[in-house]
UniProtKB/TrEMBL annotation:
Reaction(s) the record says it catalyses: Hydrolysis of terminal non-reducing beta-D-galactose residues in beta-D-galactosides
Phylogenetic lineage: Bacteria, Bacillati, Actinomycetota, Actinomycetes, Glycomycetales
Name under which the protein is recorded: Beta-galactosidase
A Gene Ontology cellular-component term: beta-galactosidase complex
Active-site residue list: E175 (proton donor), E333 (nucleophile)
Keyword Glycoprotein: no
UniProt source species: Glycomyces albidus
Length: 694
């Protein structure tokens, strides 16, 4: 295959080299105020409906829509033949109405014509089965035919609309990896080998990193190296982890190739919608977020999650951590009600649309957007909720959408302000999560997000603000750093974490953190090798528990899922095991390190124990809540140059009183200090402009 102007390189080569260092950009202002809107798919509707759409958008205060996300096939109607009529019309209509456009490169859904002509574009699963067309993201990032067609279309789109005044943002693709996270085809195998050459240099270095002497799997030639294919067996963990990293880079390379094409024709900011949540993500977003002008997230609450507001807070805190410097980000998608991809898709309860949306804004989003504007009558997502549901403007959802629009308008001045600095951080690292969840591990069903969310929950319930940061973050600003189940840790990261107690801070490390290095090799000498010196304790043996099994603790609670035989050196036991063969042994330890403290949690603890320890940590590190609020009331503050804004979200079904003062921007009423506690209505939200800033 020869170099191609739309390809940007030889097929399968230099994935890593195609990823330049991110260029820092000043914060962007997409629209005047907080962004409000959603995915708009006018191509699904007759033209006369569009006029009503735009009228209702204006009525609701919509100022930004994501347009054309899946509109490749409806524009490029035959190979190289493009009919822009409807898109011209839609962009013009929105522009005349003063509604900004986040214009999508529609590469998430290649036309069926292209897939029929080139079935080899579709990704191959680990078992060799080629995913048939029909869904979305039916393409392999190493496939040059896909890339050529995709970039050719992106170029035509950017040429046509790059300078259009309605285009406020470029929305590249859609949820990269959400359907094509890993491809195991031969082209991917080739690209992977090139990626390995770039990462490790020589085949010898690969053999050493992966420890291929085991099972006699030493590679003598590059083409013996294959992706971790097959459904059975146990691929080498080093190979597995590098394949995950390669796959993330391969998708990032596609994003960056599209972005580069767009930027040749447009100065508008470029982003893509991430899917940041609590678990290990499909790609390593720490390497993606710096390549966006404003990082954007899609967040959907899970219907069966009893603490969905905490899941939301976790995702938002993680977005802030990924972006760094507390810069605002954007909630690109959420739902007004039922999704359609969960097992049982229930509507949201009254008040949740506003509370959830403002929950994201409180934690740094400069807007609230949804999938989608108008509910689709047909197609796979016909039962997905929308801003304008099937029942139209007489629905409760529409009333709440309009209410949200008014609130966002009232909060206009919040745009660009930053969430106040957090003094606590939790480290979330996707490669460590991939490592934890894969292969022959002492416990095969541990999920990476579990401990992350649990420790976050304990701080969230105390209204202690906490950033969820990637391993690449600077930890210097934090008084407390929590490292949950970060199985594989690169030594430079471990060194920066060990520095936390050494400079007087508090570090808490949970079980299965720092056990392996970045190549997934166990660090010998007692677990967790990366941290045992600073912890003043080490683990001799793992004791994962069977389902239903529990080991009693001397704090009155019991550990489940995971326990360990811990040996104390300089640390003291804070909690000990009182049953099983571990009885009398330490479960939670604390070590003085200069003026700092390093804690080790060797077990999966019940919430009551986590809460107690979180209390001790907050006390030691001197962490204050954002506001003194009753249980179930969430308090977060954004800070601007003149004022600060205290968001109070009442997740309970009774009115709650909070000691706070300021002007409530949502109702326009003043609540001066000295006027007694402020009432936050059941299920409601207050946003106080505080003058002066506390
Ligand atoms: C998102 C996706 C949207 C829509 C939505 C439904 O993951 O980006 O296009 O499918 O889910 O919840």
């Amino acid at each position: 295959m020869t170099a191609d102007p739309w390809y940007g390189g030889e097929p399968g080569t230099a994935v890593r080299a195609s990823i330049p260092a991110p260029v820092p950009r000043p914060p962007v202002r997409l629209v005047d105020g907080l962004a409000f809107g959603g995915d708009y798919n006018p191509e699904q509707w007759p033209r006369e409906v569009w006029d009503e759409d735009v009228r209702l958008m204006r009525e609701a205060g919509v100022n930004l829509v994501s347009l054309g996300v899946f509109a490749w096939g409806t524009v490029e109607t035959a190979d190289g033949v493009r009919d822009w009529t409807w898109l011209d019309d839609a962009i013009g209509l929105l522009h005349r109405a003063g509604i900004g456009v986040g214009l999508a490169t529609p590469t998430a859904a290649p036309p069926s014509r292209l897939l029929a002509a080139h079935p080899e574009i579709a990704p191959v699963l680990a078992d060799g089965f080629r995913e048939p067309a029909g869904g979305r993201l039916a393409w392999c990032p190493a496939n040059p035919v896909f890339r050529r067609h995709a970039l050719r279309h992106v170029e035509a789109l950017a040429e046509r609309y790059g300078r259009h005044p309605a285009v406020r943002l470029w929305h590249i693709g859609n949820e990269f990896g959400g359907g094509n996270a890993r491809c195991y085809c031969d082209l991917s195998a080739e690209a992977f080998r090139d990626w390995l050459r770039e990462r490790h240099g020589t085949l010898d270095a690969v053999n050493t990193a992966w420890g291929t002497a085991q099972w006699g799997h030493r590679f003598g030639a590059w083409d013996e190296v294959l992706p971790p294919r097959g459904r059975h067996g146990a691929p080498n963990p080093g190979l597995f982890l590098d394949y995950e990293r390669y796959s993330s880079d391969a998708l990032l390379s596609q994003y960056l190739a599209e972005k580069a094409v767009v930027e040749r024709h447009s100065d508008a900011p470029v982003t893509t919608n991430l899917m940041v949540g609590a678990g290990a993500q499909v790609v390593d977003y720490a390497t993606w977020a710096p390549h966006t002008a404003i990082a954007a997230n899609d967040h959907y609450t899970l219907v069966d999650d009893p603490r969905r507001e905490q899941d939301l807070a976790f995702a938002a805190d993680r977005m802030r951590g990924l972006v760094g410097d507390r810069r605002p980000w954007l909630l690109m998608e959420s739902s007004t009600g039922s999704p359609s991809w969960q097992p049982r898709n229930r509507a949201k309860d009254p008040g949740e649309i506003v509370r959830h949306s403002l929950g994201h804004v409180a934690r740094g989003s400069d807007g609230a957007m949804f999938f989608q504007w108008r509910a689709s009558r047909a197609g796979a997502e016909q039962f997905h909720s929308a801003m304008l549901p099937h029942s139209g403007t007489r629905s409760r959802v529409w009333r709440e959408v309009r209410e949200l629009g008014r609130h966002l308008q009232a909060l206009k001045e919040v745009q660009g302000t930053r969430v106040e600095p957090a003094r606590a951080a939790i480290v979330a690292d996707d490669p460590a999560g991939w490592a934890l969840q894969h292969g022959l591990k002492p416990h095969r069903s541990l999920r990476y997000g579990r401990e992350l969310r649990e420790w976050h929950r304990a701080l969230w319930e105390r209204n202690v603000l906490c950033d969820v940061v990637p391993a690449s973050a600077a930890f210097d600003a934090y008084d407390l750093v929590i490292v949950p189940t970060m199985l594989a840790v690169a030594e430079p990261v471990a060194a920066r974490l060990r520095a936390v107690p050494e400079r007087g801070g508090t570090l808490l490390v949970t079980y299965l953190s720092g056990v392996c290095d970045e190549d997934h090799q166990v660090i010998p000498g007692g677990f967790p090798g990366a941290f045992r010196d600073v912890l003043g304790a080490w683990t001799d043996e793992f004791y994962p528990l069977q389902a239903g099994e529990a080991v009693a603790l001397d704090d009155g609670a019991a550990a489940t899922e995971w326990t360990e035989r811990v040996v104390l050196e300089t640390a003291e036991a804070v909690v000990s095991y009182t049953s099983s063969s571990l009885a009398g042994g330490p479960a939670v330890t604390r070590n003085r390190v200069g003026d700092g403290t390093a804690w080790y949690v060797s077990a999966h603890l019940p919430s009551a124990s986590v809460d107690r320890i979180a209390g001790l940590l907050a006390e030691t590190a001197g962490l204050e809540p954002t506001a003194t609020a009753p249980p179930g009331v969430e308090a977060v503050r954004r800070v601007g140059p003149e004022h600060s804004y205290l968001f109070l979200l009442n997740h309970t079904d009774t009115d709650q009183a909070v000691d706070a003062a300021g002007r409530d921007l949502l109702t326009g009423t003043d609540h001066p200090s000295g006027a007694g506690p402020l009432t936050v209505p059941a299920g409601g939200v207050r946003v106080l402009r505080e003058t002066p800033r506390p």
